[in-house]
């Protein structure tokens, strides 16, 4: 029998959730996996991704309600979706994307009180029997390696 080792997953499975909101946390951007900031929002890597390059976009302002967003905030969220897609195409050449929100616990929101979008690059054949049989995803790249690989693409994409 072959074994697949993913020892970093034990933290997710055994630790209680960190106090506070992951989207409001401040500190070292690399430790927090924040890869890009704008005046209204941030882009970060998902600590427990579905695929390598799974990005999360959130406003700096803490809200869970779509109807509380200003026009500028809505525009910034979707501008960042397009930016993330561009970065991921140039850095990783995915075959497609899943983009979306989980609004509320019943919809699968892991953080239900701070609205955020998921941008998930997908490759043909990236889902295999592991997800079905073992409730496990195989990620070929370490999280901080993904961070370091994607980071230089954001300033270029913003025209800096």
UniProtKB/TrEMBL annotation:
Signal peptide: none annotated. SUPFAM superfamilies: HIT-like (SSF54197). Residues 22-129 form the HIT domain. The keyword rRNA processing does not apply. It comes from the Bacteria. A motif (Histidine triad motif) lies at residues 114-118. The keyword Coiled coil does not apply. Keywords: Nucleotide-binding. PANTHER family: AP-4-A PHOSPHORYLASE, HIT FAMILY HYDROLASE. This is HIT domain-containing protein. It comes from Geomonas anaerohicana.
